[in-house]
Hints:
The chain is α+β, with helices and mostly antiparallel strands. The protein has three domains: 3-117, Orthogonal Bundle (Helix Hairpins), CATH 1.10.287.1260; 136-182, Roll (SH3 type barrels), CATH 2.30.30.60; 188-270, Alpha-Beta Plaits, CATH 3.30.70.100. The protein is 53% helix and 18% strand. The strands form two sheets. Strands 4-3-2-1-5 form a five-stranded antiparallel β-sheet. Strands 6-8-7 form a three-stranded antiparallel β-sheet. Strand 3 and strand 4 (169-173) form a beta hairpin. Helix 2 runs antiparallel to helix 3. Mean pLDDT is 78; it is low at 59-63.
Amino acid sequence: MSNIEKFINKQVENLSTEDVWMDIGGIVLKVFLIIIFTSLFIKIGKMVIHKIFEVRDRSSLIRTSERREATLVKLLVNILFYFASFFSFILILETLGIDVKALLAGAGIVGLAVGFGAQSLVKDIITGFFIIFEDQFSVGDSIQIDQFTGTVVEIGLRTTKIKNWTGEVHILPNGSINQVTNFSINNSVAFVDVNIAYESDINKAEKVLQELLEELPEKYEEMVKPPELLGVQTMDVSNLTLRVTCETLPTQNFYIARQLRKEIKHCLEENGIDVPFPRLVMYSRSEVDLKKSKG
């Protein structure tokens, strides 16, 4: 009988004993219980996190926006899942008889070596924490970072994802975010310049426009208050310009500006107020002028 056959027979004999199967059964049961308790812990932790934010919403002292609440809840749930999974993995290794202390010591040395080469990653994570907890911007906000402008679709500890109006998603490392413009914090202002021909009655134009502007908030809920006619903005060669402004909900200024242009155009047409257009004046020299120029 060869050495391999002897080794196999010995292992079969060991597995055939009752004590070995009892030990294996105990290990499997412990691993199963660890997984069950970890799942329950994560589930209860999620419930607690959501409950905490519900209490914050009812409080008159502490208020958070819905967008920031969604961002923080998602972040805390992810952190809870990662930490619970890590400790569950450590307990399973101990149950299997692996020396966790030696493993962690070796991992610490490796982590220290990797840390020197991953300083940008650490910077991204730290910056991500400050972005979220200082509420610089939240999921759903319209922002501009450097040359990128769009809506925030995801904020992580390492990266931020921005989707622009044409559909492209820009993924930016948090550590590279130095300056942010947030368009969703305060109300926006829409403005429209209306060109009026010099031949038109400016007093009549201002009167009909003022009457129109007072009626528009009932039609457009994006308007915070009625639009305001500021008066004559400029006097050009062929026309004068009236400026209209309107305070709107955040990021709704472009939509309201387009609607204002349409409403103002219909109003001017209905009241017979001319809108200027390019004109070409042709001058025909008479025979007298030609003789004078030749003489």
